Amino acid sequence: MLGPLMIDIEGIALSDADRALLREPLVGGIILFSRNYADPEQLASLTAEIHALRSPPLLIAVDQEGGRVQRFRNGLVELPALLTLGKNFSSEPEAALAMAADHAWMMASELRALGIDFSFAPVLDVYTVHSAVIGDRALHADPSAVAKLARTYITALNACGMAAVGKHFPGHGCVAADSHLELPVDEREFDEIERHDLLPFRALIDAGIAGVMMAHVRYPKIDELAAGYSSHWIRQILRREMRFEGVVFSDDLSMLGAVVEGSYADRARLALDAGCDVLLVCNQRSAVLEIVAALAGEQFPETQARIIRMHARGPSVALPDLQASARWQAVNDQFCSAIPCPELDLGDDNLLG
C-alpha cells in the first residue's frame, strides 16, 4: 500500500535513514530537487533504487516546468518557461499549440527515460502582473488561452505515459504575496474567481487531468481557511461541483504560507480532513517524522486507489536513443532559439509548487 505522504531526501543517493523512511507505509512517494541530481546516469540509478524499495513502487515526482523551475538541467534540454509557449498564441495559435505539445513531449520523454513518474505540471494559474512567484510560469493572461494550451500540453504528456498535475487550485495568479514566504490573501468574490481562475481547471478536469495541487492562498470571501485546508474548496467545489475524481495534492506543508496554529501534525490532519489525498512535506525531516508518528496505524484506501494512477505507464525510450531521434534534435533546436521570458531566482531547493 502507498500512503498519503510525499517526502524528500537530502543528497544524490539514498542513506540508510532514507531507505527506512521510504519503506514506511504512510509514505507513498518522493519528490526530487536539484540537490538530488548530478547527471542522467546518477538519476536513473537513484530512481531505480527507489522504485525497487516497495511494491507497488513509490511514486517519484519533480517540478520540471521549464524556465526558472526546472530541477534537472545538466545533460538534459533547457525547457523554456511556460509563458514562452503562449506568447504568440493570439497571432499564431497553431504554432503556439504545437510548441506546447513539443514542450510536454520533451519534458515527459526525458523524465520517463530516467525513471520519473510525473512532474507537477502544467501551471494553470492565469498570468497577471500581480504575482511575481507565478509570473512566467503561467501559460497566458487569458483564461481560455490557458485552457487551450494546457489541454494540448496534457494530451502530449499522457501520450508519453505521464500523468499531469494542474496547479495551484483555485488560482494563485492574482495575489502579490509569495506563499513560500507568507500566506497570500485574495479578497475577490467567488463569481470573479470562477469566471477567471477556475476556467482552466474546469476545462482540464473535463479533459481528464489526473491530479490537482492546492494553493496556499486564503480567499476570505469564500472560506477563512487557506484553500489547501478548506473542505469547502476541496470537497464542495473541486469534488462535488467540478466533479474532479483524481488526486488532490497539498502544496508543501513546510512553506510559510502553510503555517497554521499548532504542529506539523495539526497541519497534516487539517489538510487530510479537508480532502487532500497526498501531503507534500519537504525540507523538514523532523516534520515528516512528527506526521508519521501522529498518523501511525491509519489506513487511507481512497488515497491508495487514486494515487496508483499516477505511475508512469507504458514503455519509455532510453535517453541516448531519444537524443538521437529527429524530433528530439528539432525540438532542442527550437528551444535553444526561443526568446526566454525574464527569469526570477526562486532559491530552487527551498521552494516547491
Concise structural overview:
The chain is an alpha/beta fold. It has 13 helices and 12 strands. It has one domain: Glycoside hydrolase, family 3, N-terminal domain (TIM Barrel, Alpha-Beta Barrel), CATH 3.20.20.
Topology:
Blueprint: E1 5-7, H1 16-22, E2 27-32, H2 40-52, E3 59-62, E4 64-66, E5 69-70, H3 82-86, H4 93-113, E6 118-119, H5 143-159, E7 165-169, H6 190-196, H7 198-206, E8 211-214, E9 218-219, E10 223-226, H8 231-241, E11 247-249, H9 264-274, E12 279-280, H10 285-295, H11 301-307, H12 319-324, H13 326-337
Parallel strand pairs: 1-2, 1-12, 2-3, 3-6, 7-8, 8-11
Antiparallel strand pairs: 4-5, 9-10
What features would you describe in this structure?
This protein is of the alpha/beta class and 353 residues long. Helix content is 39%, strand content 11%. It contains 13 helices and twelve strands. The strands form four sheets. Strands 6-3-2-1-12 form a five-stranded parallel β-sheet. A three-stranded parallel β-sheet has the order 7-8-11. The chain has a two-stranded antiparallel sheet with strand order 4-5. The chain is globular and about 50 Å long.
End-to-end Cα distance: 25 Å
CATH topology, anyone?
TIM Barrel
How many separate domains? 1
Radius of gyration: 19 Å
User: What's the total number of strands?
Assistant: 12
Poorly predicted residue ranges: 341-348
Order of helices and strands: EHEHEEEHHEHEHHEEEHEHEHHHH
Mean pLDDT: 91
Q: Rough shape?
A: globular
CATH 4th-level superfamily? Glycoside hydrolase, family 3, N-terminal domain
